[in-house]
Amino acid sequence: MKAENRFLGQPLEFWANIKLISQKLGYTERNTSRIKVPSLDEIRQAYVKMHLGPSRVIMSTGPTDFGNLLAEYFEHRAEFLNEYARPRLMNKNKAQALFNKLKKELSPHCPLPMNKQKGSKRNYAFFTGIVNMLIEANVGNHSCDYDPKELTSFTKDGFPVRSLSRRIDGAFPSVVNPVAIWEIKEYYYTTTFGSRVADGVYETLLDGLELNEVRQALNLPIKHYLMIDDFNTWWNMGRSYLCRICDMLHMGLLTEALFGDEVIERVPHIVKEWKYQIEHPARE
After folding, report:
1. What is the 3-state secondary structure (H, E, C) of the chain?
2. Where are the domains of the chain?
3. How far apart are alpha carbons 233 and 91 in whole angstroms?
4. Mind listing the pLDDT tens digit for each residue in 85-104?
5. pLDDT at 284
6. Which of 32, 155, 234, 281 has its CA 20 to 30 A from that of 187?
7. Given the DSSP bridges, would you call strands 223-229 and 180-186 parallel, antiparallel or unpaired?
8. Contact at 8 Å (CB) between 164 and 176?
9. Beta strand pairing status for 170-172 and 159-163?
């Protein structure tokens, strides 16, 4: 998923309202599993209950331009997550079958890490392996760091000028001066949506904020991706965090968010963009 252009570049007050309205009215429709689209009247009532003035959103004569834009975003977020992201999220069995299929077809040499489970649950990290194999199949002769074990850094004239606060899951072509970095969140064995999963979303937000500063300060067009999977974790238990991911994307903190088997379609195109950026560097 890429961001819808009309919601990019909105001021922080727009996102402050999106977050507060979502918190007050909820992210999902009551007694259903669908993402909620609040009505303008519900939004007005939410402001009143929060002892805030609703006049910037809706007046006696009808919604303001700002109110209409809020309503349009809520509709877009719900439509995307309900109709596009939801059917693309896989369960463990589907991810394992896709992993085995690609492993047989591609005979990969890239890392295929194991998950962190024990006993009978110990197996390959299926989604990470899928992503790694798809990247390797399309990266050509370029190098790629599938498992950086150090902080992402940016240098100028051989001297470090920025470094991120966290280690990330992958970098192209290297964790030093990357063109692209990505995070992979797969939770096939999770039974509750705990703080570990929630923290993963907020870690991505931190990465996005730091990368935006790097882009602005160093004029570097770094791409930033989040790839997630497991239907039960993200849809049955974590729909509010899917909304947060959609919000981060439109706040410009992610280049793209990929959901489940969407990676089959999108990763080859994405890698092609990375290669072009390496092979055709922007002139100073």
Report:
1. CCCCHHHCCCCHHHHHHHHHHHHHHCCECCCCCCECCCCHHHHHHHHHHCCCCCCCCEECCEECHHHHHHHHHHHHHHHHHHHHHHHHCCCHHHHHHHHHHHHHHHCCCCCCCECCCCHHHCCECHHHHHHHHHHHHHHCCCCCECCCCCCCEEEECCEEEEECCCCCCEEECCCECCCEEEEEEECCCCCCCCHHHHHHHHHHHHHHHHHHHHHHHHCCCCEEEEEEECHHHHHHHCHHHHHHHHHHHHCCCCCEEEECCHHHHHHHHHHHHHHHHHHCCCCC
2. 5-88, 92-279
3. 9
4. 999 999 999 999 999 999 99
5. 43
6. 32
7. parallel
8. no
9. unpaired
Q: How far apart are CA 47 and CA 17, in angstroms?
A: 10
Contact at 8 Å (CB) between 197 and 186? no
Tokens of 140: 């050509």
Task: Decide: 165 and 202 in contact? Cβ < 8 Å.
Answer: no
Mean pLDDT of 23-52: 91
At residue 44, what are phi and psi to the nearest 5 degrees? -60, -45
Alpha-carbon distance 284 to 276, whole Å?
Answer: 17
